[in-house]
Amino acid sequence: MHFWEEPIISGEKGSGTVFFSGCSLGCVYCQNFEISHKNEGKLITPERLADIFRELEEKGAHNINLVNPTHYVLAIKEALNIYRPNIPIVYNSSGYESEETLNIAKEFTDIYLLDFKYISPDRSQKYSGAYDYPEFAKNTIIKCVEHQPESIVENGIMKKGVIVRHLILPQATREAALVFDWVKNNASNCFFSLMSQYVPFGKAGEYNEINRKITKREYEKVLNYIMDSSFENIFIQELSSGDEKYIPDFDLTGI
Ligand code: SF4
Questions:
Q1: Model pTM greater than 0.85?
Q2: Sequence ranges of the domains in the chain
Q3: What SS3 state is found at 183?
Q4: How confident is the model at residue 225 (pLDDT cuts 50, 70, 90)?
């Protein structure tokens, strides 16, 4: 159970989160380095995955939160055909998605939780090894908003819709403003979630400019820019969230 997602996702009872091994991006600062880069994890069947969904639902989870599901969509679909929980399914993705994958995800997704990490191809190439990420991320957001155009929130808990997240990187306040502007102009009916939890992990030490947390000044610059806009549905993470204690232990709990 995960309690540190946006309040409309985690609620009071928690989000029933399943982390998948591997990742289609290679972010040098990844906080989930062991599972995303080193592929740590445990091999399970779609039948067991269906049982995990059931167990999370029985624990009272507000939703099933599929983290980094991209390369497992067929297995997830198979698991959901075995057991479809009576709570929303959250597709929690980097945004680096193909049309083909999105078409499969569409069959089972109620809520999209999408990163929009960079709008600059150069920065995207440098830190995530994917020059084409911005174009894929934009297309992903547009397609997901087409699929779930309306945000439905009942008693403070999201049932359907799209949340676009942006993690502020050090020395990238302009990038954050451009990402926000794009979302405001192209996906104005979704939620925007500004994240400040950046902590240099993985190979971030090899890049001097990102080998630190963001400063209060950087945080406030982006915050002020966003708050000056007329965009309505915004989540803001407090600067104190940039702390290792908010990173889950990947100890195979629940698998
Ligand atoms: S930060 Fe997210 S998208 Fe990037 S490598 Fe890690 S899990 Fe993948």
A1: yes
A2: 7-246
A3: helix
A4: very high
- Is it the case that residue 243 has pLDDT exceeding 90? no
Q: What is the pLDDT of residue 29?
A: 96
Q: Is the CB of 237 under 6 A from ligand 1?
A: no
pLDDT at 6: 96
Question: Ligand 1 pocket, 27 CB below 6 A?
Answer: yes
Ligand 1 pocket test, candidate residues 17, 18, 27, most atoms within 8 A of CB: 27
Predicted confidence at residue 250, as pLDDT, reads 77
CATH number of 7-246: 3.20.20.70
Whether 36 is in the pocket of ligand 1, judged by its Cβ within 6 Å, is yes
CA 244/CA 92 separation, integer angstroms:
20
- Tell which atom from ligand 1 comes closest to the C-alpha of 23: 8
